[in-house]
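This section describes the prediction task in plain terms. A model, or a person checking by hand, is given the sequence of a single protein chain and must write out its three-dimensional structure as a string of C-alpha cells. No templates, partner chains or ligands are provided. The sample shown here is typical of the held-out split.
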Amino acid sequence: MMKSLFLSLLLVSVLFMNNFSEVQGKKWKGEGTTQNLESIVIGRCYDYIRTVNPAVGEKNCSEIWEAFKNAFINKDPCSILPKDYELFINLSLHTIPPNKSLFWENNQLLVNSFAGKGRRYMSLGDTLFGFFGDFLNWCGQANSSGLDYESCPTTEECENNAVESFWRMASITYAQHSSGVIHVLLNGSAVGGAYPDPGFFADYEIPNLQKDKISQIVIWVVDNIEGPDIDSCGTHTVKILENRLKTLGYDVTCTDNYKSVMFLLCLDYPDDSKCTLSSF
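The expected answer:
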C-alpha cells in the first residue's frame, strides 16, 4: 500500500516538474540554437579572412562574435530589431566588388554554387556578415545571458525574432553596398512565382539599392531541370519586378534559362532532355 502511494506521488511529481519546465522554458515551434554556435561562427570568421576572402584584411573575430551575441541575448526573443545588429555589421563590413552582387529568391543552394564563394559573384552569403550566419539558427532568452538550445520562435510566431532581424539587416546592408551591374537570379519553377512580394528582395533589398551607383540590373529566370515553367521574363511576377525596377529608373534586362546557370544545373541531370547539347 505504502509502495503504491509512493509511486503515485512520484509520478505526479515528475508530471508536475515536466509541465512546470514547459511553462518556464516558453517553448517555440522553431529549432533551437545551433549547437556549438560560438565555435562555428568564430571559426567561419577566421576561415573567411584567411582563406575565403583575405582581401577584406584583418577582423577581430572574437569582437564580432560578442557584437553578434549582444544583439539578442538577455532580450525577449520576439523583440529583436534589425538595428540591434548595427555594431556587428559595422565590425564585419567590407567592400563588395562592383559588378559582383548577386541577389536571389528561392534558390539559395544554386546561388551558392554559381557564385563560387565570391570567385564568380559575391552573393549575400559570400560576404563576411552573411557567411557568418548562413544555415545557422539562434536565439536568446529574456533575463538570461544564455542561448536557447531547445527552441526558437519562427517568423510565423513573431517577425522580430533574432534570425529574421539579422537577415533583414544583412540584406539592407548588402543592397546599400552593391554597385555597377546588379545580377538577380530567380527560380522560374517556384510556387507562387519567381518574384515573391513580400520577400527579402522586394522589401529590404530593392528599396536600399543606391541608384546613382548602379549601371544596370540583369535578371536571370531559371527553371528547375525537372520543375515546371511557372514564371518567365515579361510574364507574371517577373513582369511585375521588371516594371517596378524600370519605374524606379533602372536599365533592366531579363534572360530565361541563362546558359551558365543551366550548365551548372545539368551536372546533376546529365541525361535530362533539357541538358543535351542541342538544347543550348
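For orientation: The longest helix spans residues 2-25.
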